[in-house]
Amino acid sequence: MEEAKQVRDLKPLFHPKSIAIIGASERGFYPTKVLQNLLRYKYGGKIFPINPYFKNVIGLKCYPRVLDVPVDIDLGVVAVPARIVPSIVEESGKKGLKALILISSGFREIGLEGAKLERQIIETCKKYNVRLLGPNCLGVVDTHSPLNASFAPSTPVKGNIAFVSQSGALGTAMLDWTLDQRIGLSKFISLGNKADLDETDVIQALADDANSKVILLYIEGVTRGDKFVDAALKVTKKKPVIAIKSGITSAGSRAVSSHTGSMAGSDLAFNLAFNKAGIIRVNTAEELFDIAKSFSTQPVPKGPNVAIITNAGGPGVLATDACEKFGLKLAPMSVKTVKRLRQNLPPSSGFFNPIDIIGDADANRYKFAIENVLESEDVQNALIILTPQAVTEVEATAKILIHLKAKFPDKPLVASFMGGNTVSEGIKMLEAANIPNYKFPERAIQSLALLTTYAIHQNTNPSGDMQVFKVDRETVKSLFEKVRKQKRLVLSAFEANEIANAYGIAAPSIKLATTADQAVAIAESVGYPVVMKVESPNILHKTDIGGVKLNLNSPSDVKSSFYEIIGRAHTFYPNTSILGVNVQRMVPSGREVIIGMTRDITFGPLLMFGLGGIYVNFLKDVSFRLAELTNSDAMNMIKETKAYTLLRGIRGEPSSDINSVLDTLLRVSQLVTDFSEINEMDINPLMVYEKGCMAIDVKITIKP
Amino acid sequence: MEEAKQVRDLKPLFHPKSIAIIGASERGFYPTKVLQNLLRYKYGGKIFPINPYFKNVIGLKCYPRVLDVPVDIDLGVVAVPARIVPSIVEESGKKGLKALILISSGFREIGLEGAKLERQIIETCKKYNVRLLGPNCLGVVDTHSPLNASFAPSTPVKGNIAFVSQSGALGTAMLDWTLDQRIGLSKFISLGNKADLDETDVIQALADDANSKVILLYIEGVTRGDKFVDAALKVTKKKPVIAIKSGITSAGSRAVSSHTGSMAGSDLAFNLAFNKAGIIRVNTAEELFDIAKSFSTQPVPKGPNVAIITNAGGPGVLATDACEKFGLKLAPMSVKTVKRLRQNLPPSSGFFNPIDIIGDADANRYKFAIENVLESEDVQNALIILTPQAVTEVEATAKILIHLKAKFPDKPLVASFMGGNTVSEGIKMLEAANIPNYKFPERAIQSLALLTTYAIHQNTNPSGDMQVFKVDRETVKSLFEKVRKQKRLVLSAFEANEIANAYGIAAPSIKLATTADQAVAIAESVGYPVVMKVESPNILHKTDIGGVKLNLNSPSDVKSSFYEIIGRAHTFYPNTSILGVNVQRMVPSGREVIIGMTRDITFGPLLMFGLGGIYVNFLKDVSFRLAELTNSDAMNMIKETKAYTLLRGIRGEPSSDINSVLDTLLRVSQLVTDFSEINEMDINPLMVYEKGCMAIDVKITIKP
Hints:
Two copies of one chain form a homodimer.
Chain A: H1 2-8, H2 11-14, E1 18-22, H3 29-40, E2 46-50, E3 56-57, E4 60-61, E5 75-78, H4 85-95, E6 99-102, H5 112-128, E7 131-133, E8 139-142, E9 147-150, E10 158-165, H6 168-180, E11 185-190, H7 199-207, E12 214-219, H8 225-238, E13 241-245, H9 259-263, H10 268-277, E14 280-281, H11 285-295, E15 305-310, H12 313-326, E16 329-330, H13 335-344, E17 355-356, H14 363-374, E18 381-386, H15 394-407, E19 413-417, H16 421-432, H17 441-458, H18 473-485, H19 493-502, E20 511-513, H20 516-526, E21 530-535, E22 548-552, H21 555-572, E23 580-585, E24 591-600, E25 604-611, H22 616-619, E26 622-626, H23 631-639, H24 642-648, H25 658-674, E27 678-688, E28 693-695, E29 698-702
Helix pairs in contact in A: 4-5, 7-8, 8-10, 11-17, 12-17, 13-14, 14-15, 15-16, 18-19, 20-21
């Protein structure tokens, strides 16, 4: 409760009644720039320069310390050398400041010493309940307050796009660029080191900000993975979040001893997290704002059908190709619409989508075509392409679009007036009337497609079908305790099967033989044929060393296999403890799938499903989701793979029990969520039959 | 010889000594605009307006017909109604004009009637040896001649990029855009309907044009597929060709009864053709010119290593991600380089690639870093990123780059000065000095990556290892004649195997049984176990209907299988002729791969290799190339698939005879090149053993 309140209340950061500029001077670059920005940008509250060496700064009375200011202060902007920061934060806390923007650098980013200083500051902030942005950040701009508490050289124009950037320099460049592109912002927030306030806090605050219609994020990492996903899911139900996450090539920090671990790329977890949270991920800084242009001005579409109206065939084809690429549908033209279009368009026009009103189209022809097409219920989005040809009326056509946009406010309408000078005046008119223009039709289609993606996200309830199974947690708990006591990280085959059974996952019973005679005795008791596998905590891929023998039918086979397995294990792992050989009844063969989990350092359990067996790494037919899985998550995971086609039965083969696979996947999800000590888990293969399935080989490792 | 000469000699089109404007008037839009463009653009030759209704047009003496002009004319620009065009072309031929630009529309693009007119014109052109551009085109601009024989509203500035566009409207828009972006062109050529001159002719001419350093193509289709690939391969050895091909979603026009046909997407042939020809394919109109900016100004790099020098971490990370995405390598920094950098850069700089010279970098620091990095032999390309921060010296840094570019002329150097107004002056300076600037670092990296791709293409000799096998063409030829006489399109299993054998591809001997007793007799003679398959020209996927029986070991098995197969075939194909049941000795199982061919309507035989067997459509692990294959083509095809991993033997399995697969692939390539009547061909499976391979099931269909 306390935390929830604290998280959301970022008002002192964006709408402070008074601000202290700590370190203010007329010489230091950063504090001077912040002061100038505050004044120029017409901040309406009180400003108190703080600096023991000055009486006045830029005509304002200067106080030695915040504690000397006779009235309350909401926000402090701190730009002093790192070593003085701890005392400044302490004084700010004492004075009752509610928020601090820490511009100073020299903290975590410079190494261990700085990190220590940063931790010290955060503890002081917590003690006094002060929220802190930074350190090592550019500050904050709120174009509606108005407030420019940053040292950014360019100040954005007013708009409804909130831009949050972890990188200050990228932020600066993008602010400058938004001016050039006439893109308006509601807020700009530079996150810096995220010592206290991070992306999760900020997007939660922005969700409630009436001035922000879209949230843009540039991040290099996420501080609190699980909190972020949960929070973002709530935010994206209210308004779109578009993000660029850089650093996709950085090596992951997950364990990779399992199949699942080795197949989950380092960037995968971010994709899964963004998908789960409904965040739209783009790949370049350019796309971030380009897409935002549509999200900040257009309504959420009712469906994926787009009409393309163009005065040139070529760009129409490019737009059509883009529809295929980005998953938009060309709206079908009804007989009625085509009939009406034929009445007034030249006979050589294209009457089906894309509607080509040909090169000599004037503004009136655009009006006629667009109006008739938008009236159709089959059309839910529109892209208007204009190339500057002989009789093209650029500005008059822009006016038509503006008029029709007002007539059809519920249908996203974007333009692609192509060219340079000839079309620039028309583009300005469009943009002033909230019709985004794209110089090239492909990006326009991409924007519409992402609007549709967002519409689908807003209308689905992802947590609707979460299932909780009745399981035996105690058995698993005590088993892990035993393993930890023995200082092991890898569970034995029995232990892994026992855990599977405790969570309702069928696994064959396994017995350990330490002598050849014992192996024969077990085989005689469970019945032939049997499978034998080496048991050792350090040998994970047993097949590779010849440590697995299948389909053994006689005591002599079992005996010789025992010696061979032990011999091979000692040859390949001469200094490893070999516990013996597991003997189990051989189960009938079925479709082999894999279910696995690896734990991501940021986002937690990452579940995998796919084609199993010994070729799993070779075929790489797998799908992933973050835990916890809902029924539909799990079903979608299965359906994404080719294994699904196989399970349904191809070319006349009988179908396998897909529901039992679904059930197993959900139970694994519950297991790895319940026990955060599980580091990695593979069931490979899970043998699937016409009825039921069986976990043949279960591997579990736990965290140190 | 005659054709070759004709193809290349496009001088009258770009450098005519005299031009007739046929249809010239002061009222008609198109001819007036062409005349105006010719005059304004200071065309140096003689201009003759032609129109029987005028004595003078814009102050120039006007002649009734070209035949009335007293001197020779090189080029005619025709803008008269379509129905008059044939007589104009006839007269132009008689007069001895060498080339015509046919601006008029109303030909193939409006339907059958127009197509007829177009054919008529082309015949006349051939009769008189006149080359024709269009119809339905915008015309031609040559900025070096200078010549603007087009009705384009904007005239490009002089440069070294040749731009060829099939779409006139897209051409217009892009010309306007190049002005806005200060991109210079050497030539602009609007292809229109390509009745005579097509992309193949034009790129051949441009290859020899000293004023054009790069060729850009916007095409919606290719007229003569095989000629285009051969010609483009020669052109791209001289200079880069960058192309955008739209219409990727249009349905293909290939047969799809084979596995190969069904797996080759409609856009695949263009990708293969462009790859084979060394053409760089981009996906959007924006990319076309963005990439061209680097190709037109930068040298061909010596290798893929790039150094990124930046004053901000974030964009450096974005650029690094882009390197991974586009296949460029971050240049390793030698101990020597790092040591030198440390001497003068602030301690918190990034000394390894990307080189982060941090936010307070002035121009001198850029100079120091870039100079030291470019001196390293490990660095073959450089990207300089600048974000406008507090002390950033934009123009001074631009000057540094210009200076260093001159010092290291052999290393591609591109910039990403990010932002708007703050950096625009610096960007202008860079561009004037032939250093391309990209607003976002990703595109800069993509450009460098494509330069590297081009460098590799220039240095490889693709036709170096073409192999020709000694084969029995006569057998194949007479077999096809027989099949054609019988008006069949599908070859029987014997026929297909006979063809395979004639080309040195091992296939088992097959005998047809028309009674159960005959089947037993064949089985007894070839030896058990045997395989039996239904034989019918209309049943292509025999397994699906239960028309294949494997591993039959006794006369009674053979007998009952015969009845079952015939019964099933009649049930599933009640009205189809069933010729009987094939009997062959069962061959041992091995690795199953597929080799196939489908014929593309534009580019001819399209070869496929991949994982075979009954799951071929399910796993879709296949690679493609256009015929004819060189040894290295074929080897690369094999290596691109997962089947290759399998053939090499994974997890301790023995390796299969990859050379025998290569041999088979090359022989199939030769077969389908030798016989253009083969429409589709599948060998599935080709069974591969530790030594040798065997074509188990060969399917061949021929063209109607």
